[in-house]
Amino acid sequence: MADQKQSALAGHLRENGMLLALVAIVVLFSILVSAQGKPMFLQAPNITNIFLQNGHVIILALGMLLIIVAGHIDLSVGSAAAFTGAVAAWLTVDLELPVPVVIVLTLIVGGLIGAAQGYWVAFWRIPSFIVTLAGMMVLRGATLLLLGGQNIGPFPKSFQAMSSGFIPDLTGMEKPHGLTLIITALAIGVITWIGLRARRRDIEFGMTPEPAGLFWGRTAIIAAAVGFVGFQLASFRGLPNVLIVLTVLTVIYAFFTENTVQGRRIYAVGGNEKAAKLSGIRTERLVFFCFVNMGVLAALAGMMVTARLNSATPKAGTGFELDAIAAVFIGGAAMAGGSGKIIGVVIGALIMGVMNMGMSILGVGIDYQQMIKGLVLLAAVIFDVYNKNK
Amino acid sequence: MATLLEMREITKVFPGVKALDRVSLTVEAGEIHAICGENGAGKSTLMKVLSGVYPHGSFDGEITYDGTPLHNRGIRDSEAKGIIIIHQELALIPLLSIAENLFMGNEVATNGVISWPLAMQKTGELLRRVGLNEPPSAVVGKLGVGKQQLIEIAKALSKNVRLLILDEPTAALQEADADRLLDLMLELKAQGVTQIIISHKLNEISRVADRITVIRDGAAVSTLTKAEISEDRIIRDMVGRDMAHRYPERTPNPGDVLFEVEGWSCMHPEQAGRQMIKGVSLNVRKGEIVGIAGLMGTGRTELAMSIFGRSYGKGHAGSVRMNGQPVDVSTVSKAIAAGISYVTEDRKALGLILEEPILKNISLANLAGIASRSILNKRREAQVAEGYRKQLAIRTPGVQQKVVNLSGGNQQKVVLSKWLFTEPQLLILDEPTRGIDVGAKFEIYTIMKELAEQGRGILMISSEMPELLGMCDRIYVMNEGRIVGELTRDEASQEKIMALIVKDVGRAA
User: Fold this and answer.
1) Are B46 and B25 in contact (CB under 8 A)?
2) Is B349–A268 a contact, with Cβ atoms under 8 angstroms apart?
3) Any chain A CB within 8 A of the CB of B349?
4) pLDDT digits (tens, 9 = 90+) for B144-194
5) What is the average pLDDT score of chain A?
6) Helices (H), B392-488
7) For residue B13, what pLDDT band results from cuts at 50, 70 and 90?
8) Residue of B326, B263, B51 whose CA lies nearest to B167
9) CA–CA gap between residue B319 and residue B311 (Å, rounded)
């Protein structure tokens, strides 16, 4: 009994620890920034920028989590994002196709890229590290080829809106942004309701629930954070489109991984492929699906980055794969596969994003930034291993 | 003859199990000494004690070797004294050459630099000694198992072996290869190499061995000289024990034929042309518990897994019927849909996701049963798991507990729950009580009895003969991929099962 209590607490510790780390980092930067006499760290333009500048990492990390949970890795997503960005630019600027058509076509191209790699990984059992390393090189070359070494741009306003647009204020209040406030209030309500429901279920299933104080404390912190961010954004230009896309995708993927048959099976494949197979699960098809899904998300990320920069460039997407992989591991996934949560991954990506922005505002050089981010990744994983061995 | 080795009163205890109980063994210099016993009798443990896998101090008793006490700290110590063991699973590295394998860990080198010409020359000499006609540079993985076995012996010779231990050396060999190996053993004996051979195959033993020690339940039962060796005597010594466990009372009440396999065959997945299952036909009635007896490696697990969604082998042939109707068992999900479940012998590697909680393991093979339109109902999942926890008395604080934290018996109950949740008509249980304690065994037997009373058919594979005799209404005896006999509950005895196996081995060889 004591054992179980401990493991239940350890599970909560992991999720709460992540959130706490994010809050601590935000607070730390707020103090450091104001100590330098600069404007407030958590002002609306900065908050907006965290999502604009890191949206692609979160999107890639969602797909990467599935891949890593299934026991694989995808190194090609940066090149895939660059290539699909170039495809989108070519379709929009050179062929002058309408934006919705471009979006659909580009997502299909992304899916095909994922399928081409997933085929070898899933059905031929070629190690994913090798297949996607090859894909990384091939797609980078293909990007250069397609762009002819040039940048392609600029894009029509409707394409740019994908990354830099804001939702319209249907209430007509404008200052503050009425719809943003309404959505924020709704979000706080939904988060609290979901938390309460999960807690009720834990108790019903005879699982040791986390202490009530911890639960309400955490819920209050989340509510306050969401409220603060929402209010800040409302007083600026409202919710960025990117944030809506990210939230919707996060909810969909969290639901998919935790509440659907196929999502559960992906964890089984990563947890013990042979046992999954002997339980009637077609493991190859699931792995293939994970790669197709990753390709589609890479295309979405590629378009968002291209839209933000307002041009497709041969060097786009360099290092994205490592950012995404880092976010997944900071978020608590296991290298061996079979574990990891969507919410952890999103928090992991946000931690990286907040650190990027905070250090840039503080004027920390790119040299130290890289070193600090590397150490944070290492520390997060050591924390996990330590907890597990304890 | 002088005594080379004397092991006195060796006792080795693992947590919860006494693997060896005051076993004594004397080996004379220059003899070939055979050790016989059932699976799990303690033969391999005894050899691991001798070779230093279990170092001095981790067991009780004394070993005298060549007149002095033997205190091994590890395998290297025993090897330095010329005691070399060749395990059943060969320890060669398939991608390296013969020469590289021969001197692995014992390289022909000065100051860490290997002299390849010298190594090649020495390899050539050793290969001639064991009669293997292959170049020293040949890649080991491309040679057959028989030749690999010879390389292992050559490797032992390179270490100046004085006592060579062979653990079931012919188990994986074709007849001709096995013959050649036995000839080589006799040659080595003529050259003065003392040998211990562990084997089930009585015809081999009577051909090469000077004396036999029979081990049963962790104790040495008898040591026979060549003149005393007879099949009947060895079989009696191997199996002659009281029923160690109790079994629940059953009144068998078999119904109609539920499950029929006819002419089932399949090939080894990698070794082309090696047929593993050879035209097996069997059937199970409703409410009947049917056993498959046989030694390890005779194809029982392969048979079960090849039927269950072709999970083993390739080139399958034969037909499967449920309730008289032909069924498609070409994939695991089709086999499950046909009402067949297979509970694996290796629950940790093949049956469970250890890091996941009990409830997720139970639902895994039938996620549709807790989902509507592909969306999981976690409340239902927990209720299902809770139901099985009570029904099978899985001892755990809660169904959220990770299965890695459970005891072997409780893990087995989780695997059983998982398969019961698929609503099977036929359960194939592969070594259902392996690695679990006596009390939990009785509980598993009771569950089996209840399942049979519900009208389900049970096909039980087991290496423990008392268990088969205690539980089964009928027993098939399997050897080398074939059914070599069928015994009813009244006919069956350990002696008869052993005799069927041993005589079949004799016939094949």
Assistant:
1) yes
2) no
3) yes
4) 888 888 999 999 888 889 999 998 888 777 777 888 899 999 999 999 999
5) 90
6) 408-420, 438-453, 465-471
7) confident
8) B51
9) 16
